[in-house]
């Protein structure tokens, strides 16, 4: 009997360690091709199934409001199959979105991680983003100074180098912003940081903030400004922390000055994002204004007749294609709405928009209430970036959101439980 108990405890300890190392590996591999993260996700699910205590896990999940809220975007994809005609595309969307269900299922029913384990996962992600951004910079320098015969656009459009990291510059910008948020969190919470380590973190923040300004998308830049402003206000009374936030803002300012002073394509790219026009929409997939306003108007046209229940899980792109052709914008075929709120309204109607807002704002309010400001900043970024992109249509964004949204919410629950326990024991 004792041997069986000891063996069971040993097995559980091994499975718990595997669980932690799989989470850390997933954080590190997020910027790699999708196959890497899919394999780790499958292993994470298998490890969960092997050690699963169905009764306790079920009780944990039904008593966890975050689990219920976090699986709603996935659940609505399945429920709204009843109203779709294009089942092939609908099932493709469901398959892409499985991480939105698997991470809440596994993390909220598994043992709580310790604070040092959360920090190790964050550090693994920060390390991978740092390496990835350096690779991008080195390749850009290689193209500019070694490769010959490149066009001016190929030389100046720094963001075209980012696909080497298996995602576009837009999505990689979201990853870098997340890395900045987690770096600031580690600085604030890591015990007994030495002066050299603090200096290294400050340099890393400076580098990442300038990187965001020079080669990420506009939404990422706005997000980092919002994060810096929020943290400065939140920690205004704490001088040591305020210094770090001020340093991050200074880094962003330096990036702005670099761009504003130089006559390069980065400045033109940012100006272009604001110079959109509703008056003239060209049938041109290379005109930025047209590729943003055209899908927006197509989406609003669809909503007029489908505002309550939407068009169904798999029919959004087909409906937009019809509107593009009707409006003489056939060269925009394939462009999605570039707005996650609009996309959910088109697909699932007003109910879908409510689900998306609940998915975003319920944990946001909780994080503010519990003063988990690094989680608040992450949600700020997601909410801002959802205005310009369909982040739940892209594999890289789905993995980033599903993983860190669940992980940070789990950390918040653990921290809150620990505080209540301390209060009860005093």
From TrEMBL:
Keyword Cytoplasm: no
Domain O-antigen ligase-related: 204-356
Transmembrane regions listed in the UniProt entry: 20-49, 61-83, 121-139, 171-188, 200-231, 243-260, 341-361, 373-392, 398-418
Record's GO cellular component terms: membrane
Keywords, ordered alphabetically: Ligase, Membrane, Transmembrane, Transmembrane helix
Membrane topology listed for this record: Multi-pass membrane protein
Cell location: Membrane
GO terms, molecular function: ligase activity
Keyword Membrane: yes
Domain of life: Bacteria
Pfam family, one: Wzy_C
Name of the protein: O-antigen ligase family protein
Native organism taxonomy: Bacteria, Pseudomonadati, Bacteroidota, Cytophagia, Cytophagales
